[in-house]
């Protein structure tokens, strides 16, 4: 069961004048992954073992760079070189799911003999030619495709589903198996091929991760740990309307953006307030469309924050109630946002009690269960925008019912959100586990929006326990660790 | 237009192609042709996305049932948003305009009257069926596109209390099994038994070939009410309940008797609340009839059927029904005086027909009231496609604070110099305008009269939090805005 990882580039071998594939062959590797996918419908099960193929390339320090999605949920990795028949077992050094990059190494010292570490270049100019190397679908050997730089832009990174970073679009076909392969120009890596559109959506649209994102990743892991991107945890809006500008005490001109929301618990909470006008970021004037000028180019204000690391500060000059203020924010990663991101290398968390399965809802859960329940979909999708995270840290649901006489009337409550158990508010899945461990004659489970609770009597649950576990092959009754 | 031409072309061809048919006796209809009248209703729905205008007209046809006293019974659906109603005798094609005498969307029934008093002179009014049982045979009468009446045999499979489509109201329903063909423009489809009216078709599922009928007892209630000086409609108690079959749950609520259902909701300001029923009460009997674990009682005519038949179909508005309940382990009797539904009191109305949607436009910002018909403008997948915050507020409106009032939202922005930079804002729930809390469209109109420091400040529940408009420019730009977008009036606060 092999799966090729998606990436695209077009190959026009006859037209390649420089950086011949032969030279790159010393740096390019083929990565074969054996992964185990978690099963959110039977969270106690070990999950399906599957596999895939991706590309990677050797960089300085006996390291191999590839995409995070090539090595996600990996249980066993092997790497093979061009012209060397032997597959070498490899291990992951760092993985960054928010920017889809990973670093691997091979412990066998012979592996790096006669290989060439590739260097990184800068941002290529629009319309310049680039070459993409990898192991895409259609054959087993190294493949080269070639195209031009079409566009440089902020784009969503589909691996996590919630992050957007600088991305370079190229018109080379990116196909499954290109993922993690280098994109070269003048012998230097200017990007890592990572995602594209399927042919029925768009033609010749492939994306690579550009070097500013790669360099940030390499710098982040210098301390031996990947800290992830930092967020401002606020939303801002353009300030084009003259009446809006006047009412905020702004003069004419084109400066400033307007803060709509500041997310509770985030780094800006209490420092920046909704209704503030952001005038400057780190001394750079913010235009009314939210861009700043870096080296003469207008870029999204977010790019300033993108380049920073956990613990760094960002300074704002703001206008609040018509008075100028300065604000400094120490940056870090904020929790509510991870709920909606695809998670990898995580085990499903759950509690089984009386045949009722309770799980916290996250993007992985939603992807597998795809519940129709209107309330659940709302709570998940609007978790941040409607401040639902302020009421509960996790949305815990009754995800399935292992049918047994003691829970014969519970199916009406499937996908309902657990509000309280025996009067105790349920803030996260750990609270469910704790509530059922407390001595009680019966457990009264209250669900959001339901006029009656589910009642489980301890005596009945005890009697049914072994019966349910063996009948449904439940290996363990709870897992609270990611 | 196209399909019309096609039909005209096909007709002569079909006649030419046919060989001479053998003369044959026509099977008689279950009821006389003189008991049925074709109803052609031209209607025009309002456009909730452009509340100042109507959509293209449409035509609906149905088979009206002639009743005594020169009246014709149809479904409310066939005359919803009507602009002109015409009656046509199925035998002679003689026509007369008609008007609506009384109409109730909750039970989906309406009574029409021909403007020509002599129009129904020779008609044979139908009487309402009595004593229908599960297993009885009936006939369903449909109008063919060529005007003939098609008859389909049907069998009553279930008699139950079920939800009616429009008003969250549960009333008696006959479910019949019938191999019906879908016929275009058939909006009132009567069912007859033994020459009497059994009911009107409410909905039909082509896959399972089952149809739900608005049965004779519901029609009888409607007609009796229609004779009153003021139509009061179907009563309701304003409660929701759940079955108590789960033995662990029965022990938890201390229910030792055999039957009983658990009250999960008593709606604010409902007759039940005013009478003192509370969430958590256990209903043991209604009007002296014991209620079982599923909420059914033994009806002499139909057998086991939900006790809400007693409160919703059999009782009238103003009647008092005794609820025997268990509360804190004690049995007690609470008389509940039933009332009609207060549609105006709802946060989001379930249907709006025959009246123009309400709106206020301020400097190109269009404000509307949340209602189910607004959301339904997204089409059949509206629950997933419409803005999720609004869908949520509509679906779970019972959980909102009782003094929430209407949900007023910015539905769209008509770009104008005043709204520069606001073009992409839509579906934002308004909390305040110029410092005044907004609980109705009237509040917006009122608050707009007093801008602060020359600006209108409009605050939203969601991003971007608030926006400002120049009050003076809003006023001077009104004429231009109306002209640019062809809007006859910048507000409609009527219809209540």
In total, the number of domains of chain A comes to 3
Number of domains of chain B: 3
Query: What does the radius of gyration of chain A come to?
Result: 26 Å
Terminal Cα span of chain A: 27 Å
Structure commentary:
The complex is a heterodimer of chains A (482) and B (496). Chain A has helices spanning 21-24, 68-71, 211-220, 242-247, 302-306, 363-369, 374-381, 429-437, 458-472, and strands at residues 28-37, 48-59, 63-66, 74-81, 88-96, 101-106, 129-134, 143-157, 163-170, 182-185, 188-196, 206-210, 234-237, 257-262, 277-281, 284-285, 291-294, 297-300, 313-320, 323-330, 350-353, 356-360, 396-401, 418-421, 424-425, 442-447, 454-457, 478-479. Chain A has a 6-stranded antiparallel beta barrel. Chain A has a 6-stranded antiparallel β-barrel with strand order 7-8-9-12-11-10. In chain A, strands 13, 14, 15, 16, 19 and 20 form a 6-stranded antiparallel beta sheet that branches. Chain A folds into 3 domains: 1-224, Thrombin, subunit H (Beta Barrel), CATH 2.40.10.120; 234-330, Roll (Pdz3 Domain); 338-479, Alpha-Beta Barrel (N-terminal domain of MutM-like DNA repair proteins), CATH 3.20.190.20. In chain A, strand 2 (48-59) and strand 3 form a beta hairpin. With 482 residues, chain A is mainly β. In chain A, 14% of the residues lie in helices and 35% in strands. Chain B has 11 helices and 30 strands. Chain B is α+β, with helices and mostly antiparallel strands and 496 residues long. Chain B folds into 3 domains: 29-157 and 171-226, Thrombin, subunit H (Beta Barrel), CATH 2.40.10; 235-340, Roll (Pdz3 Domain), CATH 2.30.42; 347-492, N-terminal domain of MutM-like DNA repair proteins, CATH 3.20.190.20. Classes of the chains: A mainly beta (482), B alpha+beta (496). The A-B interface holds A 235, 237-244, 246-248, 258-261, 274-275, 374-375, 377-378, 381-382, 385-386, 406, 408-409, 442, 444, 449-457, 460 and B 240, 242, 245-246, 248-249, 251-252, 262-265, 279, 383, 388-389, 391-392, 395-396, 399, 418-422, 453, 455, 457, 462-470, 473.
């Amino acid at each position: 069961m092999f799966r090729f990882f998606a990436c695209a580039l077009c190959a026009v071998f006859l037209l390649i004048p420089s950086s011949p594939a032969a030279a790159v062959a010393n740096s390019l590797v083929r990565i074969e992954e054996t992964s185990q996918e978690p099963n959110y419908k039977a969270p106690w099960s070990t999950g399906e073992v599957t596999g895939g193929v991706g590309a990677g390339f050797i960089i300085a320090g006996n390291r191999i760079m590839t995409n995070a999605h090539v090595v996600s949920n990996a249980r066993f990795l092997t790497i093979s070189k061009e012209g060397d028949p032997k597959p070498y077992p490899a291990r992951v050094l760092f993985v960054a799911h928010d920017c889809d990059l990973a670093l691997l190494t091979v412990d066998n010292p012979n592996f790096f003999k006669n290989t060439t570490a590739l260097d990184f270049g800068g941002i290529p100019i629009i319309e310049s030619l680039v070459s993409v190397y990898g192991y895409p679908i259609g054959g087993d050997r190294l493949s080269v495709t070639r195209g031009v730089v079409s566009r440089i832009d902020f784009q969503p990174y589909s691996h996590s589903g919630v992050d957007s970073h600088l991305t370079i679009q190229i018109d080379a076909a990116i196909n499954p198996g290109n993922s993690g392969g280098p994109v070269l120009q003048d012998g230097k890596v200017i990007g890592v091929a990572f995602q594209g559109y399927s042919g029925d959506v768009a033609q010749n649209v492939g994306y690579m991760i550009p070097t500013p994102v790669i360099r940030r990743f390499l710098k982040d892991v210098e301390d031996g740990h990947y800290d992830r991107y930092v967020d401002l945890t606020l939303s801002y809006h353009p300030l084009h309307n003259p009446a809006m500008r006047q009412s905020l005490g702004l003069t004419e001109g084109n400066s400033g953006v307007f803060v709509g929301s500041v997310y509770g618990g985030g780094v800006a909470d209490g420092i920046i307030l909704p209704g503030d006008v952001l005038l400057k970021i780190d001394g750079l004037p913010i235009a009314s469309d939210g861009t700043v000028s870096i080296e003469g180019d207008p870029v999204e204000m977010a790019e300033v924050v993108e380049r920073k690391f956990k613990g760094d500060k960002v300074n704002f000059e703001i206008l609040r109630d018509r008075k100028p203020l300065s604000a400094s924010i120490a940056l870090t990663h904020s929790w509510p946002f991870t709920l909606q991101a695809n998670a990898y290398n995580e085990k499903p968390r759950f509690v089984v009690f009386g045949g009722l399965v309770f799980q916290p809802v996250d993007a992985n859960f939603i992807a597998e269960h795809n519940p129709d329940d209107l309330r659940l979909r709302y709570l998940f999708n609007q978790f941040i925008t409607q401040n639902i995270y302020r009421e509960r840290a996790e949305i815990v649901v009754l995800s399935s019912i292992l049918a047994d006489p003691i829970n014969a009337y519970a199916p009406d409550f499937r996908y309902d959100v657990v509000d309280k158990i025996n009067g105790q508010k349920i803030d996260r899945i750990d609270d469910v586990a704790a509530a059922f461990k407390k001595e009680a004659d019966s457990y009264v489970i209250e669900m959001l929006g339901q006029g009656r609770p589910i009642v489980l009597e301890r005596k009945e649950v005890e009697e049914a326990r072994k019966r349910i576990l063996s009948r449904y092959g439940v290996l363990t009754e709870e897992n609270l660790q990611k | 237009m196209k399909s019309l031409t096609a039909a005209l072309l096909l007709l002569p061809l079909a006649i030419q192609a046919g060989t001479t048919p053998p003369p044959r006796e026509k099977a008689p209809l279950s009821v006389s042709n003189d008991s049925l009248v074709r109803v052609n209703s031209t209607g025009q729905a309002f456009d909730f996305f452009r509340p100042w205008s109507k959509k293209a007209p449409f035509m609906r046809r149905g088979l009206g049932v002639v009743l005594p006293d020169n009246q014709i019974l149809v479904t409310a659906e066939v005359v919803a948003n009507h602009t002109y109603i015409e009656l046509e005798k199925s035998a002679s094609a003689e026509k007369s305009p008609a008007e609506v005498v009384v109409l109730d969307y909750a039970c989906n029934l309406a009574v029409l009257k021909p403007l020509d008093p002599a129009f129904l002179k020779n008609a044979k009014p139908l009487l309402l069926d009595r004593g229908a049982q599960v297993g009885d045979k009936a006939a369903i009468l449909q109008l063919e596109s060529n005007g003939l009446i098609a008859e389909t045999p049907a069998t009553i499979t279930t008699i139950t209390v079920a939800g009616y489509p429009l008003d969250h109201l549960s009333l008696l329903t006959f479910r019949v099994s019938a191999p019906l063909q879908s016929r275009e423009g058939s909006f009132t489809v009567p069912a007859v038994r033994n020459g009497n009216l059994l009911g009107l078709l409410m909905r039909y599922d082509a896959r399972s070939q089952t149809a739900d009928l608005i049965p004779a007892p519901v029609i009888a209630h409607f007609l009796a009410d229609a004779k009153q000086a003021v139509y009061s409609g179907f009563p309701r108690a304003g409660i929701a309940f759940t079955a108590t079959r789960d033995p662990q749950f029965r022990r938890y609520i201390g229910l030792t008797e055999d039957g009983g259902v658990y009250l999960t909701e008593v709606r604010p300001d409902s007759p039940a609340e005013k009478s003192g029923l509370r969430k958590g009460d256990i209903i043991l009997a209604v009007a002296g009839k014991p209620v079982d674990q599923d909420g059914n009682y033994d009806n002499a005519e139909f057998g086991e059927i939900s006790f809400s038949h007693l409160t919703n179909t059999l009782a009238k508005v103003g009647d008092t029904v005794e609820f025997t309940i268990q509360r804190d382990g004690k049995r007690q009797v609470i008389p509940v005086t039933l009332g009609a539904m207060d549609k105006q009191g709802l946060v989001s109305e379930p249907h709006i027909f025959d009246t123009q949607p309400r709106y206020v436009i301020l400097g190109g910002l269009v404000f509307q009231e949340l209602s189910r018909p607004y959301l339904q403008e997204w089409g059949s997948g509206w629950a997933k496609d419409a803005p999720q915050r609004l869908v949520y507020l509509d679906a779970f409106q019972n959980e909102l604070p009782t003094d929430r009032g209407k949900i007023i939202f910015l539905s769209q922005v008509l770009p104008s110099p005043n709204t520069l930079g606001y073009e992409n804002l839509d579906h934002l729930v308004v909390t305040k305008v110029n410092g005044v809390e907004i609980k109705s469209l009237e509040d917006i109109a009122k608050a707009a009269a007093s801008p602060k420091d020359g600006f209108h400040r409009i605050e939203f529940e969601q991003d971007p939090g608030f926006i400002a408009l120049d009050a003076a420019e809003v006023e001077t730009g009104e004429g231009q805005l109306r002209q640019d977008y062809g809007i006859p009036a910048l507000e409609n606060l009527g219809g209540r």
